Amino acid sequence: MNSLMIASKEQFESEVLKSHGKVSVGFATKVCAGCAFMQPEMINVHKEHPDFVMKSVFIDDFPDLADQYGITSSPTICIFKDGNLVGKQALAEHEVSTVGAKEVAAWVVKMMTE
Fold this sequence. Notes:
The chain is of the alpha+beta class. It is built from four helices and four strands. Strand 1, helix 2 (35-48) and strand 2 (53-58) form a beta-alpha-beta unit.
């Protein structure tokens, strides 16, 4: 299994942009109130769908990637297909709570299985 956390731009390129198929990428900051709601939901998604390729990027470490993909709030989940961004959902677009996190997680499952 590949590492969940993206540690370099080269890793992002090889494991997301050059990937065949779909990859879910969670963009978060190291200090993120909404992430406390989102993280358990994404762990559940991964447990229920171990075949999903899921990655995480700390915006603090890679602000240029966040800018490149229009990430303006944390956490934001992006879905890439064959290296192209095909969907993006921020927890801030929902109620910042367990309810909102469950909505975003359901969106991830829908996007990854379509």
